[in-house]
Amino acid sequence: MDQKYEEDSTSAKTSKQSNVLPLWGNERTMNLNPLILTNIQSSHYFKVNLYELKTYHEVVDEIYYKVSHLEPWEKGSRRTSGQTGMCGGVRGVGAGGIVSTAYCLLYKLFTLKLTRKQLNGLISHCDSPYIRALGFMYIRYTFPPANLLEWYEDYLEDEEELDVKAGGGQNMTIGLMLRQWLVKLEWFSTLFPRIPVPIQQKIQKHLENRFPPHAVQAASERAREDRQLERDRRGHERDRPIREDIRRDFLRDDDRRLDRDTRFERRDADRRDRDLERRDRDRLYRDRSPKRSSRSPHRSHRHRNSSKERRKRH
């Protein structure tokens, strides 16, 4: 058996030089999950929109404009809660959903039967990380397991980032994604093709030598801390203006209210003081006036005389 895998490894070294790419496994299904493949082939997007794309470059442009994550299902379109066993979320056979644009385009690439030159153009594309990611995913689904490490080797430390989760919220680098694909079968709600144990051991040993576990763990912890700090910073920046604005509004309203009340009280007090001063001044003026005592008798006398005259006339 070891000799067989050594021969596979030898053939893998030469396969990259040929313009015709090797295909491993089921050449009809691309080794995709049956439920995912059924949803792809029956989707309107694949049957109508992608059917009109005939060339490699048209498909690459479609990836650039339409792909925003790498999950097999669109967000919220598939429910797996309460399902267990073969119907669980990892198996992907229990309940369907809306298959993602990424997987439709991945299968479209498979129908084009890519050449080595075209695949190299995908994985080294500079316009979008999702174009590169679909090229790497094409390798993971269709290539012989012995060829995977050879194709991924130069990109295991690639630092270009992309968000792989539908709806956003799970950023990772190209290098981390490829290392995860080499050691894990699960990818969201589906499975990658299995890697034979001898090849898996060889890949694991290579990764451990190149990325020591303690170094990987330390790097992962640092990355996790950096992401947490970034989330805290964004959350603080997002929440702080709201809280500061509310606090400033309350303080400003309180200051305005206090200032207004103070002004009203001061104005009322000044008005009362002026009224009191005016009454006191008028009273003092009347008491000191010499005309007050003489004016009243004359006025009353004239009033009596006029009354007598009116009676005589009548």
Descriptive overview:
With 314 residues, the chain is mostly helical. The chain has twelve helices and four strands, in the order ααααααααββαββααα. It has a two-stranded antiparallel sheet. Strands 3-4 form a two-stranded antiparallel sheet. β3 and β4 form a beta hairpin. α4 (56-66) runs antiparallel to α5 and α6 (116-123) packs across α7 (129-142). 21% of the residues are buried.
Approximately how much beta-strand content do the residues carry? under 5%
Mean pLDDT: 78
| Chain oligomer state | single chain
Kindly name the structural category: mainly alpha
Low-confidence stretches: 1-7, 9-15, 81-94, 295-300
**How are the strands ordered across the major sheet?**
1-2
Tally of DSSP β-strands: 4
- Helical amount: 55-70%
Task: Tell me about the largest β-sheet.
Answer: 2 strands, antiparallel
Features:
12 helices, single chain, 3% strand, mainly alpha, 314 residues
Protein topology:
Blueprint: H1 2-15, H2 34-42, H3 44-49, H4 56-66, H5 101-112, H6 116-123, H7 129-142, H8 145-152, E1 161-163, E2 171-173, H9 174-183, E3 186-187, E4 190-191, H10 197-210, H11 213-288, H12 291-313
Antiparallel strand pairs: 1-2, 3-4
